[in-house]
Amino acid sequence: MPEIFINGHPVQAEKGQTVLQAALANGFYIPYFCWHPALSIAGNCRICVVQVEGRSWCEISCNLPVTDGMRVLTDSELVRAQRKDTMQFITLNHPVDCGICDKAGECTLQDYHYAYNGAPSISREPKVTATKFHDLSDRILLDNERCILCSRCVRFTREVSKSSALGITRRGDESLLRASEDGVLDRDAYSDNVIDICPVGALLSKSFLYKARVWYLKPTPSVCPGCARGCAVDIWHRKPEWKLRALDPQQNTSIARVTPRGAQGPDGPWICNKGRDLARIFERPRATAPMVKGKPVELAAALANVRSLIAAARHPAALVSGWGSNEEFAAFRAAFGDTFRVHVKHDHRPEPGEVVEDGFLIRADKNPNVAGARAVFGVGADSPPAWHGDTDLVLVWGEGCNFADLPRGAAVVFLNAYLAPENGHADVFLPISIATERAGHYTNFEGTVQGFAACFAKPQGASDAQALFESLATVAVATP
Amino acid sequence: MKHLIPEFEKLKQRFPAGFESSLVLPCVRRIQEDRGFVADSDIDGLVEYLGVPRIQIEEVLSYYTQFRRKPIGRWHLQTCRNLSCSMCGAERLMAHLKARLGIAPGETTADGRFTFSTVECLGSCGTAPVVMVNDTYHESMSIEKLDALIAKLD
Question: What's the ipTM?
Answer without folding.
Answer: 0.87
